[in-house]
Amino acid sequence: MEYLPSQPQRQAPPPQGVPASGAGKYHGDIAEGYDAKRVNHPKWTTEQKIIEELLSELPEGSTVLDCPVGTGRFLDVYKKKKITFIGADISGDMLIQSALKLVPQAKVEEWVAVCNKQNEIIPLRIKDKGALVIGDIRKIGLEDQSVDAAVMVRLTRGLSPDDCKVALKELQRVTKSRIIWTARVANHIHARSVELFESALDPDWKLTKNVPGYVLDYRILCAERTA
Fold it and tell me: Closest Cα to residue 151, out of 46, 48, 80?
């Protein structure tokens, strides 16, 4: 199976011997081995439990934007809760890993072949479940308040402080009621403080949950629309 074509917004690959960083590194073998490397780690299991609990509070039939959807770690939750999803990611290779959890490999290969032929990543729509699309969290391209909730997990360290605020503003624009995200908030080179996120909240949004993850400085955060 070929990988999906490169996207215009994707950064050029780093010089040989220099590791990629941020969202730009999640392609090829790294995308394929993403789950196996993390799924049994306390960080993963703790945040999985907390985020599943937050998602379980959504009414059946809700629509969720999951960006970055990555390898689709929450797809089973959406299925069990009968939640419609829009899974967006800037990495086509990560979208492939999500797609393999939703449809047979033959269907994924057909989709990849069409994308390669058209030289762009077209949405993969899964009947009665949702869709996988290419997308940048800083500019989602959805209509205002078009989803009930949004999930942004393990991304803030790959965004600058300013882009963290841009992303949260964009999620508030497209979301009706609840935004769930994760962040290391202190004592780390990529820390993004709670105060930074609160400064990006519109007047009709409020931080309602700030739960420690596997360590005190790693937080699962939730904001909700108050009006």
Answer: 48
**Residues present in the chain in total:** 227
Q: d(Cα 69, Cα 102) in Å, to the nearest integer?
A: 13
5 assigned to some structural domain? no
Rounded to an integer, what distance in angstroms lies between the CA atom of residue 180 and that of residue 105? 30
The domain in which residue 46 lies consists of 26-225
Residue type, 57: E
Confidence band of 42 (pLDDT split at 50, 70, 90): confident
Q: Is residue 81 part of a domain?
A: yes
**Nearest alpha carbon to residue 195 among 216, 215, 210:** 210
> At 21, which amino acid appears?
S
The two structure tokens encoding residue 86: 């829009």
CATH of the domain at 157: 3.40.50.150
Q: Cα–Cα distance between 202 and 2 in angstroms, integer?
A: 43
Q: What is the 8-class DSSP label of residue 74? A: T
Residue 17 lies in a domain: no
Overall domain count for the chain: 1
Q: Is residue 187 part of a domain?
A: yes
Helix (H), strand (E) at residue 49: helix 42-56
**Radius of gyration of the CA atoms of the chain, in A:** 17
pLDDT, tens only, 44-99: 899 999 999 999 999 999 999 999 999 999 999 999 999 999 999 999 999 999 99
